[in-house]
Design goal:
Tetracycline Repressor, domain 2, 6 helices, 0% strand, flat, TetR/AcrR family transcriptional regulator C-terminal domain-containing protein, Tet_transcr_reg_TetR-rel_C_sf, TetR_C_Proteobacteria
């Protein structure tokens, strides 16, 4: 299966100073405004996860992906891709070089392909 590798620009958005500042604000205010998490997720992460899950569902129907739960597969792929970014960027206070982003993206894609893609 030919896999397009994520470009650093896609990961750069997640490590952008404004994006990190928004997440820090969200984390700090979630106890005071519990409904805000749902609002933010609905306009960002949930849309991305659903778009990815839709594509993964099509791949599963075509027999190219081993999953009966495309939503879970999408969630896991995004976790592989985005999970390390907060720690490595120190919650947006450290710039991550494109070379490091490429390695992180390649590793996430490679792990996902090994776990989910049919031979």
């Amino acid at each position: 299966m030919a896999v397009r590798r994520p470009r650093p620009a896609a990961l750069r958005l997640h490590t952008d100073g404004r994006s990190c500042a928004l997440r820090r604000l969200l984390y700090s205010e979630i106890n005071h405004f519990p409904d805000i998490l749902g609002i933010v997720k609905e306009h960002g992460p949930d849309r991305l996860n659903q778009a990815l899950a839709d594509r993964l569902a099509r791949l599963a129907l075509a027999g190219r992906l081993r999953t009966t739960d495309p939503d879970l597969a999408a969630e896991q792929f995004l976790a592989l891709l985005l999970g390390p970014l907060e720690a490595r960027s120190r919650m947006g206070t450290r710039q991550i070089e494109d070379a490091e982003l490429r390695v992180m993206a390649h590793t996430a894609v490679d792990t996902f392909v090994r776990a989910w893609v049919t031979s």
